[in-house]
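Journal club prep — side note

Before the paper discussion, L.F. wants everyone to see what a predicted structure for a comparable chain looks like in token form. Sequence:
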Amino acid sequence: MGLADNPQLEDYSLRYTPAAFRKWSPWMVFLSCLVGISAMAGYALDAAFVNEFGFGNALIGFAVAAAVTLPLTLVIAFAIARRHIDIDLLTRGSGFGYLGSTLTSLVYASYTLIFLAYEGAIMAQAFTALTGLDIHLSYLVVSAVMIPLTLYGMSFSAKFQAWTWPVWVALIGLAIGTAATAPDAGHAMVHPATVAPTGLVGLTVLAVFTIAAAQLSLATQVGEQGDYLRLMPDPHTGNRRRWRLAVIMGGPGFALFAVGIFFASTLLVGYASTKLGAAQVGVPVDLFTAVYERLTGDHTVALILAGLLVLLSQIKINIMNTYSGSLSWSNFFSRLLHRHPGRAVWVFLQVGLSLLLMEIDIFHHIVGVLAWYSNIGVAWIAAMVSDLVINKRWLKLAPQDLVFHRAHLYNVNPVGFGSMIVAGAVSMLAYYGVFGAGAAALSPFIALGIALVLPPVLASVTRGRWYIARISELPDNDGELPCSVCGGDFDVVDIATCPFHGGTVCSLCCSVEGACKDACKPNAWRPPKGAVPLGMPGFTTEKTLEVAR
């Protein structure tokens, strides 16, 4: 049996997740999504922002970023949880088209890779502090550890995350309690010794938006949350309230948790700044060692507690980073190469690339990397939200159904894909100073504005003709149909008719088929002249199917 045929490894990656596989409770899905709060990246980044810009600027910058990302991620999280598809399949049907979403798979893969490397570097610092091993060898060790922990997908991940939460909560609670009871803890938190005590006088618009711009990259985090939210059970009368709460807190709730983490980390940084220099405060293992030393009175014990906390935190978050990265690389290469050797294969690529980034010292360049990345990530997420809310729901400029099959989509839809490209290009010009220093600091917000406004304009101009290339005539029920290629049985929603194979085909086999040359849709790149926009309001199913034939 090949890796791609092993459901324990695959977790229905690259396809619709059937109800038979979604056996977790909303609570279990939420706990898996919650892993993001364990990341030490928040503590390291918060220290960097506070040391450079002061507490006031950092706080307002985080609040601005949270206010922007919360509504964006709310839309994406509910769309994924209701449709049981990952963010790549959601992107396909949200105005990007089949090949248009290939680029966003690369954007998403880059996000997971950046944080896998950054979190891995933090983990390596703790390993070196505990063992004395050279940091470059520690990079290799922590990278190798992630491979067996991620190969077995969600089944192992969910159990590991649930079992380790009590230990993590106890360790982080001890640290926060210790820092909070230190003399003048509140003053040290707002005015850490590592920065000049500027107070409110030091608040500047430029500093606030510089911080917020880097934090906007976290909007892309909803993709990682979505890899778990797609496993949500269907809502029903008995679980609807718990279901909604789990989606909200497991998805967009990350933005709220980030603000909470900010207060916790600045409290810790405030105390540690009285013992350490600015550079050491930004290294989590040193930060927590200083805090635990106040509790234990012994440096060695404090180091062991700090090392345990950091290593556990980083394993928890990097399981998510590695897993989500393997999904995004699978999506990207399945369309580029028309092959799918299995999600597990791409775990090795994800880990190998992250090791390279660690070796070139991503840890000390992360703020600049995130500020650059925000321009592209926000353009993608905002274009999707605009299509899902404005085009589909409010203005009815797009089909209400979300279609993700290759057999049913045009290769590129200019509505979402074009909006992302334009928004990203303009914001990158702003980032590099073409429009002045003020616009450079605001560049991700420029991307956000363009990506929200442009999709309805393009959908109106194109009259919704680029969303659906054809529709398969299939039974309208919740049963299963066989795939004529792989022989498996899949839910009807995951099936399309295939003239090339003379039967029905599952979405994954359709994606990796390279010989058909899109026989089912000869006009894969653009609608034929006079084509009717399929699936739009005002067209019955019968009329739609007649046009598709």
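L.F.'s comment for the group: Strands lie at 480-482, 489-491, 495-498, 503-506. Keep this in mind when we get to the figures.
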